[in-house]
Every structure is written in C-alpha cells, then in structure tokens.
Specification:
By secondary structure, this protein is of the alpha+beta class. It has 17 helices and 20 strands.
C-alpha cells in the first residue's frame, strides 16, 4: 500500500529496517525506532504499546503494529514541508539600496537632460550650447560606477566562498552574512558526529576494563543497534582480543539484550530495567545520565560487571570552528536541538556556546529562530537534517551541511557547506563582512565622483572628452575595488586565529 493512500485508523505493520509511513500509536510489538531524522536524537527510542511513532522515522529492531493517527497529508513530514513553505514566504525580499537609488536617479537625470534641450526654445539661446550641456550631464551623471559597485563585489565574494567549498545562492545572502552576529546550530550531525560513541567503561572491583568490554562486544556482535556498533568500535580500537558472538542471543524489549558468553548469561540493560538490582552503582548511573551520557549496565549471571556510557561526541573540528566564529565577529552562539535537554546542554558546555536548548520539535525551532532574530538582529542557522529545514528557511540566512545534509535542508538553505565539516564556516562570515565593506566604499566613492564631476563638467572647466575619461576611470576603479573581494576570507598563511 502506498503511503499516500493511508487514512486515519488504518492498522499498519512495520518490519525491522522499514520506515514508518505515517504518524500513529503502537498497538502491538516492541522495537527501537531511530527518530534522528525528525528530532535529532542520535540514540534510537524504545517503543511499545501506547507509544507514539512518527512518519519518516526508521524502525530498527522489532516488528510493530500501529494505528494511524494522521493521513499522508497531515503527518509529521507533511507538516515539515508546510513549515518550510510558510517560512520561505515570510522572508523579506527587500531591494538593495543601490538599486532603489538608481531606479529613481536615472530617470531624474534623463528628465533634466531633456529639459536642457528645451531651454533654448524657451529662452532663445544657442541650441548647440544647451545640447552640449545635456550630453555632458548624461555622461557625467551616468551612475555606472554606482551600479557596478554591488554586483562585481558580490560576484567576487561568491567566487571566493566557492574556493572554500561554500555555495552561496545569491548576493543578498552574502550581504546578510556580513551583518550576522548570532549563529544557531542544530546538534546532531552538525556539531556532533551524528552517531553514539562509547565514552565510559567502568568495571566493578574484580573485573578489568578489558574483560568488561570483551563481554559487551561478544554480546553486541549480533545486534544492529547503534549502541552495539559503538561497543564494537571501542572493542576493536582497544584490542580486547578475539570477539566471539554470543549464543542464545535475544533482545529484551524496552530493556536491552542478553546472550550466553563463555557459559555465562551476559545482559546489557538500561538502568531502569525491571528486576535489575544495582544498588552500588545507582548513584554513578544517575550522575552519568545527568551529564548527558546514556548509561547501560553490564550484568553476568545477575551480578554487575560494570557500566558503559554512550554519547554523541562533538566533531573534531567543532570547538576550533566555534572559536574562529567568535574571532570573525560572531557574538552569540546557540544550540537548538531536538535531542534531550541534558544532552544539548552537555554538548553546549563542552563546546563553549552561550545557550543550549534541547527537546525542540521542528516548529519550536522555527519559533526559537524568530525570537533570537528579533532579539539580536540578523541570525544564521546551521543544520543538516530534514527536521532542520523549517528553521533554515525561517532564519535570515540558512546554512546547510551540504555533503551529508538532507535534500530538504539543502533546498531550504541559502548557503551550503559542500564539505561535511565546519572547518570553513567562519570564511562565509569573513567574506560577507569584506564584501559589505567594499560595497560601502564603492557607494561612497561613486557618489563623491558624481557630486564632483557633474558641476565641474557642466561649468565647462573640462571638455566632454575629459568627462568621459574621468567617468570611465571611476567605473574601472569601482570594479577593481570590487574584485578585491576575491581575496576574502581567512588568511590561511597566518595560521588558526582561534588558537
């Protein structure tokens, strides 16, 4: 059955590895569901009867039967699309100041020139003299340098950004980048790797870290859960030895997994699993959970072997990238995440952001972006997932992680980082600031030239030939100044300014 034909109250079975086609409530079965595409939560959520499931999320381990609570055009994905469309329509499409000026100025000069041609018929003066004045006015007052002051600088700036793997969809977004002082980030996949890593291995007394890790890896070798993959990566990196798959392996819905390893029944369980007694470790488990780490207990024949802790680790370049943003003039850094608030705050503290907000649904991210923009002026939003698309569209300038970002986020964004890295993010703002400065210089220069050249030319002090030469020289100078934007961005020969 096609997803678009689904209606409310339809009963749907979703097998392991299948996407959930619409929103609903689970009636039968238990499984772990990957909701990262919707909320940014990097660790799958356990689902059972009574749990809510959402369109576009991935069923990982078990079979689920759920009752649809929304038709295809009413589910979470459809609401995301509508949010993007609404946010894009609400963006201001203001004209550049220069364009508005020239739209009024050019007809005005043309009208004055026509009036000069009429003067001799009214006053009886020499037509050739007044015609000369009209031609001189048209040449001297032509706003060519003014008109060229913005497009050349914008084109050069976008070319400079392209050399750093930054695709900017238009000159006006480059100009906005030059005014941005607040940057908001999604967490999962943007500031972090987007996958959980094993960061805590704490054995109980009498057990070594190697033994704890080997037991856990032997059990998790048969699992496809992201936490199992994290355990196996850590075990291989730690060189624990031969990892033999457990026998009698089975998943414990809502609790964890278990199996037999070297004749012992090994279990990896959530701290709140029924029947689990860890009195000596309970306080430590609570500490880990409070710090944004997802803890799990490893048990052998009912006796604890130790604790494992998982976290979606920050990207290697994230901290230095944020320091460079501050060096580039960004005053406020904010994390807006659909992940748990504790996790968002933990990542924010690690990276040194000013504010970290978690547990946000896509529409709540849009509200947060608009509030921040009204408080701090033009705001840039950086994200990578489909759940970030509405916020990217609502921001003054949206920046998508281009390499691994979703099609929806790239389409909604105004700027795309073509590499899966934040390494050159500061370049976009530095180039924007440089272009904005050059445009201001060109505008002032062009107006000064017009203010001097027009009266001088009309007074007859210089000939029409000299007027043409002076006019064209001013235009070439404005173009040459605009081309300086090609050198925009960070001075890579000077090293890392954030160090």
């Amino acid at each position: 059955m096609a997803a678009k034909t689904l209606r409310r109250d339809d009963r749907i079975r979703v097998r392991p590895g299948e996407s959930i086609p619409t929103d609903g409530v689970v009636e039968e079965g238990a499984s772990a569901v990957d909701e990262s595409s919707l909320t940014g939560e990097s660790i799958p959520i356990e689902k059972g009867p009574g749990s809510s499931v959402f369109a576009g999320t991935l069923n990982r381990s078990g079979s689920l039967v759920f009752r649809a609570t929304a038709a295809a055009d009413e589910n979470s994905v459809s609401r995301l699309v509508k949010l993007v469309q609404t946010a894009q329509k609400s963006k201001g499409r203001s004209q550049q100041i220069v364009e508005r000026f020239t739209n009024v100025y050019s007809p005005l000069i043309l009208g004055v020139a026509v009036l000069l041609l009429v003067v001799p018929f009214v006053t009886g003066g020499a037509f050739a003299t007044w015609a000369r004045h009209a031609v001189v006015l048209l040449v001297a007052a032509a706003p060519c340098a003014l008109a060229m002051s913005t497009p050349v600088a914008f084109a050069a700036g976008m070319s400079a950004a392209g050399r750093h793997g930054i695709l900017i969809k238009g000159g006006r977004y480059l100009e906005i980048l030059g005014r941005v002082r607040t940057v908001a980030f999604d967490k999962t996949g943007t500031l972090t790797r987007g996958r959980p890593e094993l960061v805590v291995v704490e054995p109980v007394e009498g057990t070594t870290a190697q033994e704890l890790l080997l037991a856990a890896a032997s059990l998790e070798r048969l699992s496809e859960h992201p936490l199992a993959a994290a355990v196996l990566r850590a075990a291989e990196a730690g060189g624990v030895g031969d990892i033999r798959p457990a026998s009698d392996f089975r998943a414990l819905p809502g609790s964890g997994v278990e199996g037999v390893v070297d004749g012992k029944r090994i279990q990896i369980l959530q701290p709140d699993s029924e029947g689990l007694h860890l009195d000596g470790l309970s306080e430590r488990l609570e500490q880990l959970a409070a710090s944004g780490i997802t803890p799990a207990a490893v048990v052998s024949d009912g006796h604890p072997l130790g604790i494992l802790g998982f976290r979606d680790e920050p990207r290697p370049e994230a901290a230095s990238a944020l320091r460079r943003l501050r060096a580039a003039g960004i005053r406020r850094l904010v994390v807006l995440s659909g992940d748990r608030a504790l996790v968002a705050r933990s990542v924010g503290e690690t990276l040194g952001v000013d504010d970290a907000r978690g547990g946000l649904l896509p529409e709540q991210k849009v509200d947060a972006v608009r509030t921040l923009s009204s408080e701090s002026g033009p705001l840039a939003m950086v994200g990578d997932g489909i759940n970030d698309a509405p916020a990217l569209a609502a921001a003054d300038v949206g920046i998508a992680m281009g390499a691994l970002g979703s099609d929806a986020s790239i389409e909604a964004a105004d700027v795309a980082l073509m590499a899966d890295s934040l390494e050159h993010l500061d370049e976009a703002f530095l180039i924007g600031r440089r272009v904005r400065s050059i445009v201001r210089q060109n505008v002032v220069f062009s107006i000064v030239v017009l203010a001097v050249l027009i009266p001088v030319a009309l007074s007859g002090i210089i000939s029409i030939t000299v007027t043409v030469v002076a006019h064209e020289a001013a235009e070439l100078l404005a173009v040459a100044n605009g081309l300086r934007a090609l050198r925009g961005g960070r001075d890579h020969s000077a090293g890392d300014p954030s160090a």
